[in-house]
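Dear colleagues,

For the upcoming journal club I promised to circulate an example of a predicted protein-ligand complex. I picked one with sulfopyruvate because it came up in last month's discussion. The inputs are reproduced below in full, followed by the predicted structure.
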Amino acid sequence: MRKKIVYIGLSADSVHHGHINLIEKARNYGNVIIGLLTDNALINYKGLPLLNYEQRKKIIINLKGVFKVVPQHQWDYSINLKKIKPDFMVHGDDWLSGPQLFLRKRAISTLKKFGGKLIELPYTKGVSSTALANEQKKLFNTSEIRLKSLKRLLNSKKILRFIETHSPISAIIAENANYKNKNIYRDFDGFWSSSLTDATSMGKPDIEALDVSERLSNINNIFDVTTKPLIMDIDTGGKIEHLKLNIRSIERLGISAVIMEDKTGLKKNSLNEKTSNQKQDSIKNFCSKIKVINSTKINDEFMIIARIESLILKKGMADALKRAKKYIAAGANGIMIHSKEKSTKEIFEFASKFRKRFNSVPLVCVPSTYNSVRENNLIAKKFNIVIYANHLFRSAYPAMEKTAKEILKYGRSKESDKNLISIKEILKLIPGTD
Ligand code: SPV
Ligand code: MG
């Protein structure tokens, strides 16, 4: 007689005795098949696991009582259940409430179709794999793991959401912010180090006046207290001779990608209304810069993203597309197309034409002016990264200014209390303060 099959779906980013308890009990019912959640399946509700699928598989396959490991490509168990038709599915009873409830319902109705049974075992108390995995992520927060995580994310998610962080505290906010609603889970995939907000927070203009070591010192402080990948805005990249030196420091710190814009001379911010004082670099010179970065970088995963300013500078679509082609041929690992229009018309036209030729080169956009576009529309146009390039700074500034003015107006601070984080909360914010 065929031995019965028992299915367990696991993420197994941090294996603990609770998993062993589950497998030990499950094997009493038959051969245990583990549906191991892929990076893809995990990313949309837990974030990127510390260990990749193959690493996690190596651990799980060697656990006593595991008969086989198969990939579970979705958070939803029902797809594998339909395929494998196990006699039993075993799950901890922790999904009787909360965000997994709808998965439970789906699993039950799928099992019913072929006579499978759901066995719910008491969840092992006092241990949480999510909490353990989060702690581990902080411990294994090496430059290399962080640097490489951008490529892993690009391979696992339709669109990555990056947000500007100009200080460690803004990065902590960006690292921890999330939105949950039924089966929707959203968080930020990483940070954008913006030349505009870095310069503005130092009270300086966005004209490449901050030197790279100053920018990197800020990023180093951000990295001290966070784990997510960072994309750095390196403006024009500066002088070719300096670029080579800077890329070494940038990569060593664990930055995952640089975005370099094809302007030359005194660089001004692209969102300025007047652009007549801004000049685009020659294709030849910009390609040499791309090549210098490529010959300097050590990790394959370190990305150089070429930023095209043709639409900003009114050079036309054909110029933008031509440059994309040339920059990719010179070794760019991705393209950022910039626009300061209110509508998505030109950016979408670029994306459609670009995708006809380059199916898999990552495409980045920065919807600061065309901000009514939704991420789903960007996915439909096959953008891979969306950068909210200045929003944390822009939200902090008016809040600070309002409080400063209110204190002056009332001659005391009581009226501002409603806008403030309480003293109790600020003392709790950073562990170790109270
Ligand atoms: C920045 O954030 O500094 C950028 C994007 O370069 S933009 O401000 O739109 O030019
Ligand atoms: Mg910039």
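Two points we might discuss: Residues 194-196, 233, 235 surround magnesium ion (ligand 2) (CB under 6 Å). The domain at 141-389 is CATH 3.20.20.60 (TIM Barrel).

See you all on Thursday,
B. R.
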